[in-house]
Design brief:
Layout (H helix, E strand, L loop, with lengths): L6 H12 L4 H6 L6 H27 L5 H14 L5 H27 L1
Helix pairs in contact: 1-3, 1-5, 3-5, 4-5
Length: 113
């Protein structure tokens, strides 16, 4: 992250996005008005891509993952991050089952059309 960015603002923007059940809509409605918000949106988009990939595989298998399995998968994201933020990490791990279910509904509905 660039040195001139306010890391606390990036964290708050990311956590605010993660608080939404429909994370897809939250990202679509999120305008990058500041560099901090743009970084937060980029980070949450990467997280969403990861969730979409998991959901896509699960739809192909005809399976739904349990909350503990999802939290374990998302928890591994923290080990791959260069700069760690416990608030974002904890929020992602706690909210990922809700996001998984919302993305599953969205993708299942999209493929059902």
């Amino acid at each position: 992250m660039e040195g001139n960015l306010n890391r606390a603002v990036v964290t708050q923007e990311a956590v605010t996005l993660l608080a939404h059940e429909n994370i897809i809509a939250a990202l679509q409605n999120s305008a990058g008005a500041t560099p901090e918000k743009e970084i937060a949106v980029e980070f949450i988009n990467s997280y969403l891509d990861f969730i979409k990939e998991i959901v896509g595989h699960d739809i192909e298998r005809g399976a739904l993952r349990g909350d503990l399995e999802l939290r374990d998968l998302v928890a591994h994201i923290n080990s791959m991050m260069q700069q760690k933020d416990e608030h974002i990490y904890t929020t992602m791990v706690m909210q990922c089952p809700m996001h998984y279910k919302a993305v599953h509904r969205h993708l299942a509905h999209s493929t059902g059309d």
